[in-house]
Amino acid sequence: MNRSHLFLLLSLVALALITACGKSAIRNRVNENNYPRVILWAWERPEDLSFIDSSRFGIAFLAQTLTIRNGDVVYNPRRQPLKIPTGARLIAVTRIESQKITHEPTPLTDDIRKKLVERIRKTLDLENVSAIQVDFDAVSSERTFYRQLLEDLRRGLSDNVPLSMTALASFCVGDPWLTGLPVDEAVPMVFRMGTDSDRIKNFLASGQDFRDGLCRQSYGVALDEVVRTSFEKQRRVYVFNARAWTPADISILVERFGS
Q1: Does domain 3-257 have CATH number 3.20.20?
Q2: Which of 37, 131, 155, 167 is paired with 237 by a 20 to 30 Å CA distance?
Q3: Radius of gyration of the chain (CA)
């Protein structure tokens, strides 16, 4: 083996070690807290999930929507009933919306960030909630603000409280802005992907995986939209349903993902 070959071999080994260290450095409090592998998203509508087995399925429910408007934060709590079984593990989801293209954008100030963080933290006071998820489709100009918000939020939480975020699937394919965010998982939503749909579905169907380690902790799908992946079976999956959940829907889930 000549010097150039030896140098190449050592470089590849070093790269593999760096990659492995990077993956192991990601702490996942969702796993540490033994949340079920399959999580049902419960959006803003009446939901009766009292029939599910709480040892097999968790629930991530929309707890509130926070809209940034006219220099302030408009608070809209969940208004629809949610019935859950005894022992259910709940993740409180906060949806953040901002005025982007169709309206004159509101400056993203420190005061707005503090108000958002305070409102999100309060969802931990809801009954049976022990984890938080943030759902914000931040455009490029909002990413610095979003990163700071997540950093502030993480600092204000107890060390063992899981902090999750949703992510457009396109963020997890070649877009490095998620790297280093202070969250336990960035859940790539591989459904309703719009113009990116075919590209990302083909990418996943070919056996490839998301590049950022945060995007390899879990993923989100829709019950009515099948996406082929080669993900390991133990990877956590969040499932969206366009209608209220029924026992028949759970049967479909068990057949597709196990539990």
Answers
A1: yes
A2: 155
A3: 20
